[in-house]
Amino acid sequence: RAVSRRLACGDVEGRLEAIFGRVRAIQAKSGRFDMLLCVGNFFGSTCEAEWAEYRTGAKKAPIPTYVLGANSQDTLSYFPDASGCELAENITYLGRRGVYSGCSGLQIAYLSGTEAQEQPAPAHSFSAKDVAELKTSLLATPNFRGVDILLTSPWPRDVGTFANSAGEIDTKKCGSKLVSDLAASLKPRYHFAALEKAYYERLPYRNHMVLQETPQHVTRFIALADVGNTSKKKYLYAFSIVPMSSMDPAELVKQPQDVTENPYRKLRKEAPKSKAPPCAEEEPACQFFFDLNKHQGKKRPSDGKERGDSQPKQAKKPPQPTGPCWFCLASPEVEKHLVVSIGTHCYLALAKGGLSPDHVLILPIGHYQSVVDLSSEVLEEVTKYKAALKEFFRSKGKRYVLFERNYRSQHLQLQVVPVPLDLCTSEDIKEAFIAQAQEQQIELLEIPEHSDIAQVAQPGTPYFYVELDTGEKLFHRIRGRFPLQFGRCVLASEALLAQPQRADWRQCAAQRPEEAAQARAFRREFEPFDFSLRD
């Protein structure tokens, strides 16, 4: 396999002697590199004299050097041909946009300029049309898996989401959304950018949705500082790379331990999904997510509607608790003053020490340990309570977040916490959970829409899961220790409810008369939505 040794650098800004002197020193010490890739501003506003020596051939770059185009009107004159050209011996302008493929098979996608703020786009800017055409040219390639390298001058907007800190750079405001869109689609193994006079090597991120898509390679985003900066920030990056086309597929998709969620998930989810209808002989793909009963010769329906066959099943009695249970409704331990609604199989109760006065629990009346263990009738009533609570909270300008921790608990408790709609979006909530999970080395994965937890966890499996009232779900299979208050901590954090002092229920439990008054108030407000009073 041909291993390519490459160098990438940030804004040169006309400091040609500085960058080429550094390259010569590195090659003298570490051996020859194949090429130097320059992102950001290659030319500066006062570099004419230094550049003239290279342009006339008096001096020569020590390595084949490939540069991106102008980022401002000031340096446009250095690039005579917008489609790319040789600027001097060993120094090549790649062009406005395109793909460079070397003889080794390495694919380098590039996009020159900054994102246009006006139409028509100036010659030193790119537009949505430029990005769309570059994407189309590559995505139309048969069996396209991604490119080896992506070169852009601006950072991609939001690249710091789910990641290590970018220091002083605010990645939610800095950079280009079009570059984010390009990176999300082209799935580069390395993405280099500059312009911010900062060095930032982001943790590698996934290019596939775990549990929904087959594993793909990761992307490493690296922003480089300006050449010769006085703060000694890194501006030159050396790396070795084997072209994707030459790699063993299993080796290519290996996930490093520090891999994070994709920072451009929103863009990927918003992309139009064009799914071909399944063939007559095929069943929909969703049938094959986590079909844990397959070895028993049965297929579990995945749409949640057909949990039985045409024969009515005998209702299975729930197991009996091995000792006192605080949540079995018939148990003397139940704090009945907190109960706000009782159905046939389930009941609602205010949470003791809730995150808010309307934080409630959905609980089975009988003794079930987790959602996975529920019989179809109980599950059906859980679904009805979820629908009623969604309607109730939406009428109050809120959305709910539901979570379950099937770990060190013996009776199912579905915690339902309302969050004001104007406080955060459902995407903000997911990001908060994923970000805090990553901080604690917890792998919290998004599971396919319209699938249920019973498809990803067998009875007895410890797990934690979050569900939004949109139906979106995040899941973690617990394999060791797990923070018992994790769900509450995320919701109480500054990113969401901003009440970190309420993360532990024991610190905010009220006196019994106050709890009873809160329960009466909730019962009164919930009454128009409570199906148990009508059924």
TrEMBL record:
Residues 314-422 form the Cwf19-like C-terminal domain. Pfam families: CwfJ_C_1, CwfJ_C_2. Transmembrane segments: none annotated. Residues 252-280, 295-321 are annotated as: Disordered. One of its GO terms (molecular function) is RNA lariat debranching enzyme activator activity. Residues 300-310 have a biased composition (Basic and acidic residues). CDD domains: MPP_CWF19_N. One of its GO terms (biological process) is mRNA splicing, via spliceosome. GO terms for cellular component: post-mRNA release spliceosomal complex. Residues 440-531 form the Cwf19-like protein C-terminal domain. PANTHER family: CWF19, CELL CYCLE CONTROL PROTEIN, CWF19-LIKE PROTEIN 1. Belongs to the CWF19 family. This is CWF19-like protein 1. It comes from Chaetorhynchus papuensis. The gene is Cwf19l1.
